[in-house]
Design goal:
The chain is an alpha/beta fold. The chain folds into two domains: 38 residues, no CATH class; 126 residues, RbsD-like fold (3-Layer(aba) Sandwich). The protein contains seven helices and six strands, in the order αααβαβαβαβαββ. The protein has a six-stranded mixed sheet. Strand 3, helix 6 and strand 4 form a beta-alpha-beta unit.
Length: 179
């Protein structure tokens, strides 16, 4: 289901009113100008549909951020488009909202097809965007496709780098410390 920014803002206001958020937050949300759709601390690269998808995912779920050439619709029924955005831009927008799995390798990339080579700059660019220094699992092309079939969603970016596909595995979001 596609959602416009206006529908997202209206839905957020209705949900806040229904749950009576503390400190007048429900009133503040419902009084926002319709159509502004901007939230503090969320990258403008994160669409309302992507934000909804990230919120729906549970721990252990995976999301594919693919390059522009990836056959996402072939492998998954939940496909989001982020045309014109590099995968690194999406990763940088996602990571402040997304806890990586602490119990399994949370980052997976496609390995080069035999006879082909990887550009190390792609991995470096993604590591920088994620602020991630841990292990990245490399999987064979068809194994990557199988993971994409089981993923919660596929986001097709505007990334044009060869082997520019990456999978993130969601972890458990820590609760804030109780006072």
């Amino acid at each position: 289901m596609e959602m416009t920014r206006r529908e997202f803002v209206s839905g957020t206001a209705a949900m806040a009113a229904a749950f009576a958020l503390p400190g007048g937050a429900a009133q503040e949300i419902s009084q926002r100008k319709e159509g502004t759709g901007m939230l503090k601390g969320i990258s403008p690269a994160i669409s309302p549909d992507l934000l909804k998808t990230l919120a729906e995912m549970g721990h252990g779920d995976e999301i594919v951020i693919s390059d522009a050439h990836f056959p996402g619709h072939t492998f998954n029924s939940r496909v989001l488009r982020a045309d014109g955005l590099g995968a690194d831009t999406l990763l940088a927008g996602i990571i402040p909202l997304f806890e990586l799995d602490a119990y399994a390798t949370p980052v997976v990339m496609m390995a080069a097809v035999p006879g082909d080579t990887l550009d190390p700059a792609v991995e470096a660019k993604y590591r920088k965007a994620l602020g991630y220094t841990g292990e990245i699992e490399r999987v064979e092309r068809f194994a990557f496709y199988e993971r994409a079939k089981k993923a919660y969603a596929v986001v097709i970016s505007g990334e044009t780098a060869k082997y520019g596909n990456i999978i993130l595995k969601k972890g458990v979001t820590p609760l804030p410390a109780q006072a």
